[in-house]
Amino acid sequence: MTTQPHPPDPGDRPARLAVGVVGAGRVGPALAASLRLAGHRPVAVSGVSDASRRRAAELLPDVPLVTPAEVLARSELVLLTVPDDVLPGLVQGLAETGAVRPGQLVVHTSGRYGVGVLGPALRAGALPLALHPAMTFTGTAVDVQRLAGCSFGVTAPEQLRLAAEALVVEMGGEPEWIEERDRPLYHAALALGSNHLITLVAQSMELLGAAGVGAPDRMLGPLLGAALDNALRSGDAALTGPVSRGDAGTVAAHVEQLRRHAPQILPGYLAMARATADRALAKGLLKPELAEDLLGVLGQDGTTDRTGGSGTDGTTGDDGEDTR
């Protein structure tokens, strides 16, 4: 009786791997530098822009800059660290040109995709892994330090799961298994919490500066640090502020001031305030009898004070500007 061939056992691979990076953006050089600390050998990197080349020179000194095909030719472990929209075409092109070798570990770091996007490489005999670090990157050496304790969204074929998790641990990270079908939802959650947070903080600093605060960062630092800690510990129970209290007059004053001084920020304020009110109501933190006036202030485009004007000058704000 013949037996079906088994995929290569990751445990049979050399303990230390030759590592290549395709795409010297903010992520790839940092991951390769972290793998170097674990004893692996970065051997090649590709990058097009001057910024990419500078990052590679800083984080991977003495590692040659070559073409993507040459990176694969030199590497046992390939990190594909390119933008999400570029990844499918890159994988297809590398596979079609014969750059992918059987038994080669091919890893991408996209949060959006699982291993399905690596299908062309798999058909060429590669071992596909999706390892997404849940971290914001600066493109500097500090990123290597931040990987310590960083969670990675891991997706891989079952027979490669241990290999994927081992690589994450070697980079100092914590593996978190994400099913293929859940990758887009997982990535949306991270973008909501991280990318949008940066926008909110930048807007808050902008408004504080307009209000005359000399060091908005120093004012916000302790407040935001405490708010983040409370939110991570307690979730919705950590909600504070005028929306969760149902203080419609104060919120109306906010809307009036934003409409006058920062109309570009008003739509985001209204959207977040509505979301906060909905969550506070659902958790019993916002009293229903106070919610009506509050939601009136937040209704439509926020240009009309529906509460009767506590904290405003009583104008309707009907200036013809659509701030939705």
From TrEMBL:
<dbReference type="InterPro" id="IPR036291">
    <property type="entry name" value="NAD(P)-bd_dom_sf"/>
</dbReference>
<dbReference type="InterPro" id="IPR019665">
    <property type="entry name" value="OxRdtase/DH_put_Rossmann_dom"/>
</dbReference>
<dbReference type="Pfam" id="PF10728">
    <property type="entry name" value="DUF2520"/>
</dbReference>
<dbReference type="Pfam" id="PF10727">
    <property type="entry name" value="Rossmann-like"/>
</dbReference>
<protein>
    <submittedName>
        <fullName>DUF2520 domain-containing protein</fullName>
    </submittedName>
</protein>
<feature type="region of interest" description="Disordered">
    <location>
        <begin position="299"/>
        <end position="324"/>
    </location>
</feature>
<dbReference type="InterPro" id="IPR018931">
    <property type="entry name" value="DUF2520"/>
</dbReference>
<feature type="domain" description="DUF2520">
    <location>
        <begin position="150"/>
        <end position="276"/>
    </location>
</feature>
<dbReference type="InterPro" id="IPR037108">
    <property type="entry name" value="TM1727-like_C_sf"/>
</dbReference>
<feature type="domain" description="Putative oxidoreductase/dehydrogenase Rossmann-like">
    <location>
        <begin position="11"/>
        <end position="133"/>
    </location>
</feature>
<dbReference type="InterPro" id="IPR008927">
    <property type="entry name" value="6-PGluconate_DH-like_C_sf"/>
</dbReference>
